[in-house]
Predict the structure of Molybdopterin oxydoreductase, catalytic subunit A.
Amino acid sequence: MEAKISRRKFLKLSGVAAFSPFIRLGDVVSPRTKAPTPTDFGVEKRVPLRCRMCAQQCPAIGIVKDGKLIKMEANPHLPYSGICGRSRSTPAAVYNPDRLKYPLLRVGKRGEGKFKRISWEEALDRIAKVLKKYRKEAPEKVVYLPRFTSAAGIDKPFWHLYGTPNIISYADTCHSAGHDWGLGGYFGRPISPGAVWMDYPNAKFGVLAMRNPGGGLCVYQFGTFFAEGKRNGLRLVSVDVRFPNESIEGAGHRWLPIRPGTDPAFHLALAHVIVKKKGYDEAYLIEKTNACMLIDPETLEPFKAVIEEKEEKKGDKTVKKRTMRYLVWDEAQGKAVFKSQASKPALLGEFEIEGKKVITAFEAISRALERYTPQWAEKITTVPAKEIEAIAEELIKNKPQVFVDTGWYSERYANSLRQFHAIGLVNTLLGCWEKKGGIGGIPKVKLHGVLPKVKKPKRIQITKYYQKKEGYPFIIPKAGRRFVFEALRTGKPYEPKVIFAMGQNFIGGSAGSVELIKLLDKVELIVCMTPFMDESCLYADIILPDTMFPERNEALHVKFKQSFPTVAMNMKAVEPPFEARPGDWVMVELAKRVLFSEEFEKYFGDFVRGGWEYGWRKQLEGLDEKYPGITLERLKKEGVWYGKQNYKIKKKTLTHEIEIFSLTFLETYKKFKEKGYPFAEYANPLPSWAPPFWWEEKKGQLAEDEFILTTGFSPLNSFTGGQTRNNPLLREIWDQIGLDRLWIHPERAQKLGIQDGDVVEVFPAHNPEIRATARVWITPLVHPDALFTYYGVGAGVFSQLKKFLVFLPEHGVNMNHFSKLHFAPLQGGHATQDVIIKIRRA
Ligand SMILES: Nc1nc2c(c(=O)[nH]1)N[C@H]1C(S)=C(S)[C@@H](COP(=O)(O)OP(=O)(O)OC[C@H]3O[C@@H](n4cnc5c(=O)[nH]c(N)nc54)[C@H](O)[C@@H]3O)O[C@H]1N2
Ligand SMILES: Nc1nc2c(c(=O)[nH]1)N[C@H]1C(S)=C(S)[C@@H](COP(=O)(O)OP(=O)(O)OC[C@H]3O[C@@H](n4cnc5c(=O)[nH]c(N)nc54)[C@H](O)[C@@H]3O)O[C@H]1N2
Ligand code: SF4
Ligand SMILES: [Mo]
C-alpha cells in the first residue's frame, strides 16, 4: 500500500516537474540534450553548501537542475538566514569560461604567464619528487599557504606528517594581529573578528570607524542583524576616509571624514572625554576589570601582588591555573587590601603605603589620557573637536547599549595595534563587553579531526622565529604569510624552498607584491591550486585547477562570525568542469607518493576507504551528547546545526578580569624597553598615540600630488579571486554603478587638472616605475588626503592577468602592488596603506 502511494506520488511529482507547462515562476528550463532521469531533469535538487564567493562560508542552498547549479538560496534552517549579492552570482563564477581547466606547467619565465597543459599524473609526480627530496633534507623548508582550501581536515595532517610546521595563513594581511592583540590585551588572549559580535539589533548607538558592516558584509547572520538594528532605530556615526554609503546611508546616520591612518588619535580623544566627564561605568570598572589595581607609578608594576598556582582537573588532564591577587585601596577600611577583601575599592587616587607612593591603574590611565584632548585629535585627524565631544556624549548617554565596532580588517597601518588598543579602552570604559546591546562573545563547537591526530613537527616555524627573536612578540604564528618572504630576504631562520598555496593569493593579497616576486628566485618549486588565475599563479611552476565549492564534499565547518555556535555542511552538488579536482584528492595522491606506506595506511587508510561519509561521522563522534541534535542526517538534510547565543567572552588574563590595564602588554613593554627597542612604546599598557609610518615620514603634510590610497569592500566585490573580480554578472553591475573607479576629492582634482572620468596613472612615491591606471570619480565623499578604491577590481600592475581573466575591468589599482614589504611593529601586520601614492594624468 505504502509503496503504491509513494509510486503514485513519485509519478505525479516527476510528471509535474518534467512535463507540465505549469512551471514555477523564475524556473529555467533548458533544452533537453539527454534522456531525462526522474532525479535530475526538470526537478530541482537542493544541496547544502557553504558559500565561498568571499571567505565567510555562509550556509546556503545550491539549487541544481539538469546537473547544473542554477542559483543559490539562503539556508532557511537558521534563525537569521540570508546570502548576499556575490553569492547570487555563484553560477557566473562556476560556469565562467576563464576557469582553470587542466594542470599547467610553466614554460616561460616566472611571471611571464606561459604555461602548457600536463596530466595530473605528471603534475603530482613532479611535486612529489621535490617533496621527497626535502622530506629527507629539511621538510620545514616546505611552506603550505592555505585560505580557500578544498582539503580542510586533510591538508594539515598531511603537512604535519610530512614534517613541516609551516602551515601559514593570510591573516597577517587581514586582522592579525593589530586587531587581535590590540583588543586581546584586555582579555589575555587574541580576540579575532570571529570571537565577538556587535549586538546591532539591541544597540542604541554605535561608532563605525574603519569598519563597514554594510559593505564588508557577512549576510548570514550579520547583515540581517545589522538591518534589524537599523530598523530598531540604531543610530550610527561612521568615521571613515570615504562616505561608506553601504553602511550608513539613510536618516540619522552621519559620516565624519578622517585623515587616513590617524584613527588611534580619534579613539584616544573619545576616551579622554569619557574620563574627563566621568561618563564611564564606574561599577563595571570596579567589579569586572582591574582598574582599581594598585601599581607603582614609576615602573607600572602591580604593587605587592601575588600569583597563586592551583591545579585543576580539565577532562582527564590536570592543568595549572595561575591567578594574580592584587592590592586595592579600600576606602571603607582606609588601607590597602586584596581586592576580594575590600568593600569599597578606590577607582582613582594616589596613596602612600609603607612610605611608597602608589596609584590605581585607572589613575594612571586617566593621567595618560590628559593630553589627548579633542582639540589635539582634531589637528591630527581633521575630525572637528566638537564632533568628537558629541560622539562621546552619545556613547555616555546610551551606555551600555553602545559600541565602537571592534571591526575586522585591521592591517592597514603601522599603528593598528594602538588603534585597536584604544578601541578596546573606549568599550571597556563604557562597560559594553558581554552586555545586551553591547558586544558579545561567540562560543564555538569543537569537532574531532577527520584523520587521526598528528603532532606538529618540532622544527622551528618561520613565524615563531620572528616572534621570539626578531621583535614581533604579538605575531600570531599561524597567521604570517609575509614572514615567509622575510625569511627569503634575510635567510633567517632558513630559506623556504617550496611554496604550496591552496587558495591564497600571497602576491596579490599582500603588501609589497612587487618586492615579494623578486625574492621568489630563491624558491625551487611554487605550486598554486585555485579555480582561477591570479597574481600568484603567474609565478607558479605548477598550477593545479581546483573545484569550486559546489563541486566537492568538504569537512564540516564551525568557524563562523555570528552569535550562535554553528556547524555547517558543504556537499557536492555538481560535477567539476574539465579536469578540475578537489584538494582532498590532491592531498591523498601526494600522501601516497610521499609518505611511507605504513604511515599512509595508519592515517589515510580509513578515509580513503570510507570517503567523506566516514570523515563526517568521525568529526561528529559522540558530540550529540553535548550538543543535542548534531547528527549527520540532519546536517545532510538541513545543512546546519546551531546552538545557543550568549554574551560571554572567554578571558585568559592573570587576574581573570577584563584587564583595562593589560598585564600582557606590561610584560612586553618592560622587556622591550629594557632592550632599547625603538617601538617599545607600542606595547604600553597605558593609552599612547603612535602615528602611522606615512605620517612619520611626512609629519602629516602631503604634497600637492601625494595621497594615501585606501580600500574597502562593497556588497558586490571581494578580494583578488576570480570569483568576483572576473565575474561576468557582477562586472555588468560594476559597470552600471562605476564600482571600479578611483575616488578623489574635487579640490585635489582641480589642483591637478583632473576631470571626472579621466584615466590617471597611479604609482608609489618610493618607486615611480610601478604603475597602474585608474578611471577617476571626482567626489566630495572622500577625505582630501585619501584616494579610495574598492579592493580587488582590476589587474593593477600585473597586466599579464588580462590574458587569463577576460572580464576584468580595463583599469584598476591594487594597493598591495604599490606598498612596501614592511611590517607593523611588534605584531607584523602588512600595513599596506602606509605608503605615499602619487597620481598624474595618463
Ligand atoms: N590593499 C588591500 N589588501 C588587502 C585587503 C584590502 O582590503 N586591501 N584585504 C585583506 C584581507 S581582509 C584579506 S582576508 C586578504 C585575502 O587575501 P588572499 O589570500 O590573497 O585572498 P584572495 O584575494 O581572495 O585570493 C584567494 C585565492 O583563492 C582562490 N579561490 C577561490 N575559491 C577557491 C577554492 O575553492 N579553492 C581554491 N584552491 N582556491 C580558491 C581565488 O581565486 C584566489 O586566487 O587580503 C588582504 N589584503
Ligand atoms: N563584500 C565583501 N564582504 C566581505 C569580504 C569580502 O571579500 N567582500 N570579506 C570578509 C573579510 S575577510 C573581511 S576582513 C571583512 C572586512 O570588513 P571591514 O573591515 O568592515 O571592511 P572594509 O570595507 O575592508 O573596511 C572598512 C572601512 O574602512 C575604511 N577605511 C580605509 N582606510 C581607513 C582609515 O585609514 N581610517 C578609517 N577610519 N577608515 C578607513 C574603508 O573606506 C571602509 O569603508 O569583510 C568580510 N566581508
Ligand atoms: S558574505 Fe556573501 S559572498 Fe561571502 S560567504 Fe556569505 S553569502 Fe557568500
Ligand atoms: Mo579578511
User: Anything to note?
Assistant: The pocket of molybdenum atom (ligand 4) is lined by residues 174, 409 (CB under 6 Å). The CA atoms of residues 211 and 407 lie 5 Å apart. Residues 597-620 form the longest helix (24 residues).
